[in-house]
Write a structure and sequence with these properties.
Elements: E1 4-6, H1 21-26, E2 37-40, H2 63-69, H3 71-75, H4 77-83, E3 90-95, E4 103-104, H5 108-115, E5 123-129, E6 131-137, H6 143-152, H7 155-160, E7 162-167, E8 172-175, E9 181-183, E10 188-193, E11 200-201, H8 211-214, H9 221-224, H10 235-241, E12 250-251, E13 261-266, E14 269-271, E15 276-282, E16 284-289, E17 292-297, E18 301-304, E19 311-314, E20 319-324
Antiparallel strand pairs: 1-18, 2-3, 3-10, 4-11, 5-8, 5-10, 6-7, 6-9, 12-13, 13-20, 14-19, 15-18, 15-20, 16-17, 16-19
Amino acid sequence: MKPLYLPANQPADRFYAGGRQIAALRGTGPAASHEPEDWVASATSVFGQEPVGLTVLPDGRLLRDAIEADPEAWLGAEHVAAFGADPALLVKLLDAGERLPVHAHPDVAFAAEHLGLAHGKTEAWVVLEPARVHLGFTRDVGVDELAGWVRTQDTDAMLDAMHVLDLAAGDAVLVPAGLPHAIGQGALVVELQEPTDLSILLEWSGFRIDGDADAHLGLGFDVALAAVDRRGWSADEIARLRGATAASSGDLLPDAASFFRVERWTGPRGLDAGLAVLVVVDGAGTLAAGGATSALRRGQTVLLPAAAGPVTLDGDDLRVVVCRPPRP
């Protein structure tokens, strides 16, 4: 089994606008205006829109089906023993052509109780292009107060009650499930997350979505808003979510290890065998696995199946982000 170089997999007609940064990174043609996400090596579909979002392999099979047919080859025996045929990871490139609406994602317990799913949606961002983001409330917000903001779409009140972070290229940020957030216009991030598409929108006014119908995962707001973390987070607590900076290499977010692992490397490097998604964020070089060598360049995304074995990267100016599921 060989490393797989994957083309862009961008679901169409998302409710927020994308920019041109995914196309620029990948070196492809003009970008569609509402294709802001590239779902890399995805065995997860867009909520309520299967099979949209699922990666199609060069042989025409869905990656999800290929994994289910031979999970040990794709995921490794230790992973399968711990998680079954579940890849336990979704990686995206996200290009914010406009500020995203304020939203939150349910945690594992909420997703299991109300949606019958094994995963919530803790996520993390590795920032490629800088942006301002809103993350978590600065004070405790009451149940009725939050419901009132959502009902009246009082975006100013929501944003005024949130921490503001100016993220630089190279920053890495962990976003626990439940924490309200809004990624700012101009951001380009590698996003790691639990493998679901579960978003509870607190804001939708001005976006291409019917919030009354589609912002609450079909649960109704009385239930869905219970998934939102309304606690006031201190500035120090928010700062601790902001892990690595551009100068960092190796494990960028150790505190995320129970959900996913993310590493950044520059120059020649050996990678252990095991399922991984490789994003080449800059430079050029080569990838060697199983006795074969292939070229790497900026903007490529590569799926490394466990059966491909150890991988060697070469290239002095090569910069990569390596995304992996939680350690078994």
